Amino acid sequence: MKKILCICLSSTIQRSVTFEKVQLEHVNRSEHYVEHASGKAVNSARVLNQLEKGCVKIICPLGENNAQHFLNLAQKDGLDISYVTIPGSTRICWTLLDRTAGTTTEIVVGEPMEDISQQPEVKLLKLLVDFLPEIDAVLLAGSRPNIWSKDLYAAIAGMTKDAGKIFLADYIGDDLQLTLKSVTPDIIKINDEEFEKTFGVESVNLKTAITEKSRELQNMIVVTRGCDSTYAAKNGEFFECPAEVVKPVNTTACGDSFNAGFLHEYLNNGDFMKALQKGTWAAARNAESEIPGSINR
Question: In this structure, what are the phi and psi dihedrals at residue 32, rounded to the nearest 5 degrees?
């Protein structure tokens, strides 16, 4: 069994609330809601655990005010979490599901962030060092809250690569650019808007830009495009994988589910095109599920 470590610095308690119809400027009464431990890499971990039980571990920070609640939710999904405690609360996110319109509206509520000492960061990196000998790949996904050092993502990437492990980066902007100054992720997976913004390209030249950047970096770049086909390149060779048409229930975490399906398939079989297809399949199954980061309907 290949083992994957998912690292999430923006942990979230996700409440997915279902309505018959959502109307602005009206009282909206929900049919029901579900609650899950979440955050991009946590969502990926849930899918990985559904693909192959026991193949994934998680490192994340949790706010001391509601850490136990997050852990209780994670335990229900059988997630193996190691965490560092930080001041305040883990953020809460509401997803509004409109059954009539078939839409997903996400509302992210950032908890007030307090400055932290270096101690949680040191503990987090110590957990990474402890896990590296027993895992095959690291998946680092999501935004970096400002309480963490600007070079933390680059440090995690460098430590992973120094240990000879595969590193998948699903983050953007300055964090990705800073990482690339010191080490090249084996896999960069972002969406089309994020790729264009990070690398300063126009959508009309997207295929060429992805191919050339992959050739320059000698790595794999995967760019999802919502309902459209996925563009990707491996060492300068271009690939395209069609999207699967489904009737969506909850599109939250489709990208995270793609990461899980792709990385699991690639680690176990090494076939880039089959990994793209498995990622596409996982994203489609997630869209059909009420639970964010799930391939179980």
Answer: -170, 175
Place of tokens 């059988």: 78
Give, for all 297 residues of the chain, the pLDDT tens digit. Answer: 999 999 999 999 999 999 989 888 899 888 888 999 999 999 999 999 999 999 999 999 999 999 999 999 999 999 999 999 998 899 999 988 988 888 898 888 765 555 666 789 999 999 999 999 999 999 999 999 988 999 999 999 999 999 999 999 999 999 999 999 999 999 999 999 999 999 988 777 899 999 999 999 999 999 999 889 999 999 999 999 999 999 899 999 999 999 999 999 999 999 999 999 999 999 999 999 989 999 986
Predicted TM-score of the model (pTM): 0.93
